[in-house]
Amino acid sequence: MTKPLITRFAPSPTGNLHIGHAYSLLKAQGLATSHNGSLLVRIEDIDHTRCKPEFVESIIFDINWLGIHWTGELWFQSQHMEGYGETLNTLKELGLTYPCFCTRADINAQIKNSVGAPHGPEGFLYPGTCKKISINDLKTNISENKPFALRLDITKSISYLKAKGRWPLYFNDLGEGKTKADPQSLGDIVLARKDIQTSYHLAVTVDDHRQNITHVVRGADLFHATHIHRLLQALLNFDPPLYRHHNLLVNPSGQKFSKREGALTIKSYRDRGMEPKEF
Ligand code: GLU
User: Fold this and answer.
1) How many whole angstroms from 10 Cα to the centroid of ligand 1?
2) Helices 223-236 and 154-163 sit at what angle, rounded to 10 degrees?
3) Cα(85)–Cα(115) distance, rounded to whole angstroms?
4) pLDDT digits over 87-135, tens only?
5) Structural contact between residues 107 and 76, judged by C-beta atoms closer than 8 angstroms
6) Distance in Å, CA 257 to ligand 1 centroid
7) To test the ligand 1 pocket, which listed residue (6, 41, 218) has its Cβ within 8 A of the most ligand atoms?
8) What is the DSSP code string of 168-204?
9) Ligand 1 centroid to 19 CA: how many Å?
10) Does the structure show a pLDDT above 70 at 262?
11) Residue 58 — φ and ψ, nearest 5°?
Protein backbone atom coordinates (compact mmCIF):
# COMPACT_ATOMS: atom_id res chain seq x y z
CA MET A 1 0.00 0.00 0.00
CA THR A 2 1.37 3.44 -0.81
CA LYS A 3 1.83 5.85 2.08
CA PRO A 4 -0.73 8.68 2.34
CA LEU A 5 0.66 11.95 1.04
CA ILE A 6 1.72 14.41 3.73
CA THR A 7 3.09 17.80 2.81
CA ARG A 8 3.80 20.91 4.84
CA PHE A 9 3.91 24.68 4.78
CA ALA A 10 6.82 25.88 6.91
CA PRO A 11 6.97 29.67 7.28
CA SER A 12 9.40 31.49 9.57
CA PRO A 13 7.64 34.11 11.69
CA THR A 14 10.07 36.89 10.86
CA GLY A 15 7.49 38.95 8.98
CA ASN A 16 4.02 38.83 7.46
CA LEU A 17 3.28 36.32 4.73
CA HIS A 18 3.64 37.77 1.26
CA ILE A 19 2.25 36.80 -2.09
CA GLY A 20 5.11 34.33 -2.68
CA HIS A 21 4.11 32.45 0.48
CA ALA A 22 0.48 32.37 -0.65
CA TYR A 23 1.63 30.85 -3.94
CA SER A 24 3.67 28.16 -2.17
CA LEU A 25 0.89 27.44 0.30
CA LEU A 26 -1.67 27.06 -2.49
CA LYS A 27 0.68 24.72 -4.36
CA ALA A 28 1.12 22.56 -1.25
CA GLN A 29 -2.60 22.55 -0.58
CA GLY A 30 -3.33 21.68 -4.23
CA LEU A 31 -0.97 18.71 -4.05
CA ALA A 32 -2.49 17.49 -0.78
CA THR A 33 -6.07 17.87 -2.00
CA SER A 34 -5.48 16.20 -5.35
CA HIS A 35 -3.97 13.14 -3.62
CA ASN A 36 -6.36 12.96 -0.71
CA GLY A 37 -3.42 13.79 1.53
CA SER A 38 -2.75 16.17 4.39
CA LEU A 39 -1.17 19.55 4.73
CA LEU A 40 0.69 20.32 7.96
CA VAL A 41 1.78 23.74 9.13
CA ARG A 42 5.16 24.09 10.81
CA ILE A 43 6.29 27.34 12.35
CA GLU A 44 10.07 27.56 11.84
CA ASP A 45 10.86 29.71 14.82
CA ILE A 46 14.29 28.55 15.99
CA ASP A 47 15.80 31.99 15.50
CA HIS A 48 14.64 33.76 18.65
CA THR A 49 16.56 36.86 17.55
CA ARG A 50 14.30 37.36 14.51
CA CYS A 51 11.01 35.50 15.12
CA LYS A 52 8.13 37.33 16.77
CA PRO A 53 4.86 36.04 18.28
CA GLU A 54 2.86 38.70 16.42
CA PHE A 55 4.05 37.21 13.13
CA VAL A 56 2.93 33.74 14.24
CA GLU A 57 -0.50 35.25 14.83
CA SER A 58 -0.59 37.06 11.51
CA ILE A 59 0.57 33.94 9.64
CA ILE A 60 -2.21 31.86 11.18
CA PHE A 61 -4.72 34.61 10.46
CA ASP A 62 -3.63 34.78 6.80
CA ILE A 63 -3.75 30.99 6.31
CA ASN A 64 -7.25 30.89 7.75
CA TRP A 65 -8.30 33.91 5.72
CA LEU A 66 -7.14 32.17 2.55
CA GLY A 67 -9.53 29.36 3.53
CA ILE A 68 -6.78 26.78 3.86
CA HIS A 69 -7.22 23.95 6.33
CA TRP A 70 -4.32 22.11 7.81
CA THR A 71 -4.26 18.82 9.65
CA GLY A 72 -3.33 18.39 13.31
CA GLU A 73 -1.63 20.75 15.70
CA LEU A 74 0.71 23.50 14.62
CA TRP A 75 4.32 22.33 15.00
CA PHE A 76 6.61 24.94 16.55
CA GLN A 77 10.28 24.20 16.05
CA SER A 78 11.13 26.12 19.23
CA GLN A 79 9.32 23.35 21.16
CA HIS A 80 11.48 20.61 19.66
CA MET A 81 14.98 21.80 20.46
CA GLU A 82 15.74 18.65 22.44
CA GLY A 83 15.14 16.47 19.40
CA TYR A 84 17.53 18.56 17.29
CA GLY A 85 20.11 18.25 20.07
CA GLU A 86 19.80 14.45 20.04
CA THR A 87 20.28 14.34 16.29
CA LEU A 88 23.26 16.62 16.58
CA ASN A 89 24.77 14.20 19.10
CA THR A 90 24.33 11.34 16.64
CA LEU A 91 26.34 13.27 14.04
CA LYS A 92 28.92 14.26 16.65
CA GLU A 93 29.32 10.63 17.73
CA LEU A 94 29.91 9.66 14.12
CA GLY A 95 32.81 12.14 14.19
CA LEU A 96 31.32 14.21 11.37
CA THR A 97 31.15 17.60 13.07
CA TYR A 98 33.73 20.10 14.26
CA PRO A 99 33.58 23.25 16.35
CA CYS A 100 34.03 26.52 14.50
CA PHE A 101 35.13 29.55 16.48
CA CYS A 102 35.26 31.93 13.53
CA THR A 103 33.25 35.11 13.57
CA ARG A 104 31.65 36.42 10.39
CA ALA A 105 34.44 39.02 10.22
CA ASP A 106 37.10 36.26 10.51
CA ILE A 107 35.49 34.33 7.66
CA ASN A 108 35.25 37.40 5.44
CA ALA A 109 38.91 38.22 6.08
CA GLN A 110 39.98 34.62 5.34
CA ILE A 111 38.07 34.68 2.07
CA LYS A 112 39.47 38.08 1.12
CA ASN A 113 43.01 36.87 1.70
CA SER A 114 42.68 33.66 -0.29
CA VAL A 115 43.03 33.34 -4.03
CA GLY A 116 40.15 31.59 -5.78
CA ALA A 117 38.07 30.96 -2.64
CA PRO A 118 35.35 28.44 -3.58
CA HIS A 119 31.95 29.92 -4.27
CA GLY A 120 28.54 28.23 -3.99
CA PRO A 121 24.91 29.15 -4.63
CA GLU A 122 24.78 31.08 -1.34
CA GLY A 123 28.09 32.90 -1.78
CA PHE A 124 31.58 31.98 -0.66
CA LEU A 125 31.97 28.65 1.13
CA TYR A 126 33.40 28.39 4.61
CA PRO A 127 37.17 28.04 4.05
CA GLY A 128 37.51 25.26 6.63
CA THR A 129 39.83 27.18 8.96
CA CYS A 130 38.67 25.55 12.20
CA LYS A 131 38.92 22.10 10.66
CA LYS A 132 42.69 22.57 10.66
CA ILE A 133 42.97 24.05 14.14
CA SER A 134 45.70 22.53 16.33
CA ILE A 135 44.73 20.50 19.40
CA ASN A 136 46.40 23.12 21.59
CA ASP A 137 44.42 26.00 20.08
CA LEU A 138 41.26 23.96 20.37
CA LYS A 139 41.93 23.30 24.05
CA THR A 140 42.71 26.98 24.69
CA ASN A 141 39.53 28.12 22.96
CA ILE A 142 37.45 25.66 24.94
CA SER A 143 39.10 26.56 28.26
CA GLU A 144 38.49 30.25 27.50
CA ASN A 145 34.83 29.47 26.81
CA LYS A 146 35.08 30.92 23.33
CA PRO A 147 31.69 30.48 21.70
CA PHE A 148 31.56 28.07 18.77
CA ALA A 149 29.20 26.82 16.12
CA LEU A 150 29.19 23.19 15.01
CA ARG A 151 29.80 22.51 11.35
CA LEU A 152 29.24 19.37 9.31
CA ASP A 153 32.42 18.06 7.73
CA ILE A 154 31.15 17.36 4.23
CA THR A 155 34.26 15.52 3.02
CA LYS A 156 34.21 13.18 6.02
CA SER A 157 30.46 12.67 5.66
CA ILE A 158 30.87 11.61 2.05
CA SER A 159 33.73 9.25 2.96
CA TYR A 160 31.56 7.75 5.69
CA LEU A 161 28.78 7.04 3.21
CA LYS A 162 31.23 5.77 0.59
CA ALA A 163 32.63 3.29 3.10
CA LYS A 164 29.10 2.00 3.60
CA GLY A 165 28.50 1.77 -0.16
CA ARG A 166 25.82 4.48 0.07
CA TRP A 167 27.32 7.12 -2.17
CA PRO A 168 26.36 8.81 -4.54
CA LEU A 169 22.99 10.04 -3.37
CA TYR A 170 20.02 11.25 -5.36
CA PHE A 171 16.80 13.04 -4.63
CA ASN A 172 13.64 13.21 -6.69
CA ASP A 173 12.14 16.50 -7.64
CA LEU A 174 8.75 16.45 -9.36
CA GLY A 175 9.94 19.15 -11.76
CA GLU A 176 13.68 18.48 -12.21
CA GLY A 177 13.49 14.70 -11.93
CA LYS A 178 16.17 12.51 -10.37
CA THR A 179 18.97 14.77 -9.19
CA LYS A 180 22.42 13.78 -7.97
CA ALA A 181 23.11 15.32 -4.58
CA ASP A 182 26.11 17.63 -4.51
CA PRO A 183 26.39 18.74 -0.86
CA GLN A 184 29.92 19.99 -1.47
CA SER A 185 28.39 22.89 -3.36
CA LEU A 186 27.41 24.40 0.01
CA GLY A 187 30.53 23.52 1.94
CA ASP A 188 30.73 22.71 5.66
CA ILE A 189 27.38 24.14 6.68
CA VAL A 190 26.49 25.09 10.25
CA LEU A 191 24.44 22.48 12.15
CA ALA A 192 24.25 24.42 15.40
CA ARG A 193 24.78 28.13 15.67
CA LYS A 194 26.76 29.80 18.44
CA ASP A 195 23.60 31.28 19.92
CA ILE A 196 21.04 28.65 18.84
CA GLN A 197 21.70 24.95 19.29
CA THR A 198 20.44 24.02 15.84
CA SER A 199 20.24 25.48 12.34
CA TYR A 200 17.70 25.59 9.53
CA HIS A 201 19.31 22.60 7.75
CA LEU A 202 19.30 20.37 10.79
CA ALA A 203 15.85 21.31 12.09
CA VAL A 204 14.11 21.01 8.73
CA THR A 205 15.65 17.59 8.02
CA VAL A 206 14.67 16.27 11.44
CA ASP A 207 11.15 17.67 11.25
CA ASP A 208 10.42 16.43 7.74
CA HIS A 209 11.34 12.99 9.07
CA ARG A 210 9.50 13.23 12.39
CA GLN A 211 6.37 14.59 10.78
CA ASN A 212 6.45 11.82 8.14
CA ILE A 213 6.49 14.33 5.32
CA THR A 214 6.25 12.49 2.00
CA HIS A 215 6.30 15.59 -0.24
CA VAL A 216 8.22 18.80 0.38
CA VAL A 217 6.75 21.70 -1.58
CA ARG A 218 8.88 24.86 -1.48
CA GLY A 219 10.37 27.53 -3.69
CA ALA A 220 13.18 26.95 -6.16
CA ASP A 221 15.37 29.22 -4.02
CA LEU A 222 15.73 26.27 -1.63
CA PHE A 223 16.69 23.76 -4.31
CA HIS A 224 20.38 23.93 -3.39
CA ALA A 225 19.56 23.34 0.29
CA THR A 226 18.08 19.98 -0.69
CA HIS A 227 21.58 18.73 -1.57
CA ILE A 228 22.52 19.13 2.09
CA HIS A 229 19.22 17.79 3.38
CA ARG A 230 19.67 14.65 1.29
CA LEU A 231 23.13 14.13 2.80
CA LEU A 232 21.79 14.57 6.34
CA GLN A 233 18.95 12.12 5.62
CA ALA A 234 21.46 9.52 4.47
CA LEU A 235 23.71 10.04 7.53
CA LEU A 236 20.74 9.75 9.84
CA ASN A 237 19.05 6.87 8.00
CA PHE A 238 15.94 8.91 7.20
CA ASP A 239 13.86 8.08 4.12
CA PRO A 240 13.98 11.04 1.71
CA PRO A 241 10.70 12.71 0.81
CA LEU A 242 9.83 13.70 -2.74
CA TYR A 243 10.45 17.33 -3.59
CA ARG A 244 8.53 19.89 -5.57
CA HIS A 245 10.59 23.06 -5.90
CA HIS A 246 8.20 25.43 -7.58
CA ASN A 247 9.14 28.50 -9.57
CA LEU A 248 9.26 31.78 -7.68
CA LEU A 249 6.94 34.70 -8.21
CA VAL A 250 8.96 37.70 -9.26
CA ASN A 251 8.25 41.41 -9.19
CA PRO A 252 8.21 43.46 -12.41
CA SER A 253 11.99 43.95 -12.13
CA GLY A 254 12.48 40.18 -12.09
CA GLN A 255 13.43 39.90 -8.40
CA LYS A 256 11.81 37.42 -6.05
CA PHE A 257 9.37 38.82 -3.53
CA SER A 258 10.79 39.26 -0.09
CA LYS A 259 9.39 40.13 3.32
CA ARG A 260 10.88 43.57 3.01
CA GLU A 261 8.39 44.42 0.28
CA GLY A 262 5.62 45.30 2.70
CA ALA A 263 3.18 46.33 -0.01
CA LEU A 264 2.96 42.73 -1.27
CA THR A 265 1.91 41.07 1.96
CA ILE A 266 -1.36 39.16 2.03
CA LYS A 267 -2.52 41.67 4.64
CA SER A 268 -1.91 44.57 2.31
CA TYR A 269 -4.02 42.93 -0.42
CA ARG A 270 -6.75 42.21 2.11
CA ASP A 271 -6.64 45.81 3.32
CA ARG A 272 -7.11 46.93 -0.28
CA GLY A 273 -10.28 44.81 -0.58
CA MET A 274 -8.95 41.72 -2.36
CA GLU A 275 -10.86 38.49 -1.74
CA PRO A 276 -9.21 35.16 -0.84
CA LYS A 277 -10.54 33.50 -4.01
CA GLU A 278 -8.64 36.07 -6.11
CA PHE A 279 -5.32 34.58 -4.96
N1 GLU B 1 11.16 28.39 6.78
C2 GLU B 1 11.55 28.54 5.41
C3 GLU B 1 11.07 29.87 4.89
O4 GLU B 1 10.20 30.49 5.49
C5 GLU B 1 11.02 27.45 4.51
C6 GLU B 1 11.75 26.19 4.73
C7 GLU B 1 11.34 25.00 3.88
O8 GLU B 1 10.26 24.99 3.27
O9 GLU B 1 12.10 24.06 3.87
O10 GLU B 1 11.57 30.31 3.88
Assistant:
1) 5
2) 50
3) 37
4) 999 999 999 999 999 999 999 998 888 877 888 888 889 999 999 999 9
5) no
6) 14
7) 218
8) S-EEEETTTEEEE--GGGG-S-EEE-SSSSS-HHHHH
9) 15
10) no
11) -70, -30
Is residue 222 in contact with ligand 1, taking CB distance under 6 Å?
A: yes
Point out the ligand 1 atom lying closest to the alpha carbon of residue 8.
8
Residues constituting the chain: 279
Max mean pLDDT range (1-10, 110-119, 228-237):
228-237
Gap between the terminal Cα atoms of the chain: 35
Q: Return the exposure string of 227-259: e unless at least 16 CB atoms fall within 10 Å of the residue's CB, then b.
A: bbbbbbbbbeebebbbbbbbeebeeeeeeebeb
Give the residue-averaged pLDDT of 221-238.
97
Asked whether the predicted pLDDT for residue 170 surpasses 80, the reply is yes
Beta bridge partners of 225: none
Pairwise CA distance, residues 35 & 133, whole Å: 51
218 lines ligand 1 (CB under 6 A): yes
How far is Cα 193 from Cα 150, in angstroms, rounded to an integer? 7
**In the predicted model, what is the mean pLDDT of the chain?**
94
Confirm if 56 and 23 have CB atoms less than 8 A apart: no
Instruction: Indicate whether 62 pLDDT > 90.
Output: yes
- Strand 242-246 and strand 215-219: pairing? parallel
- On whether the pTM is more than 0.85, the answer is yes
pLDDT tens digit sequence for 199-216: 999 999 999 999 999 999
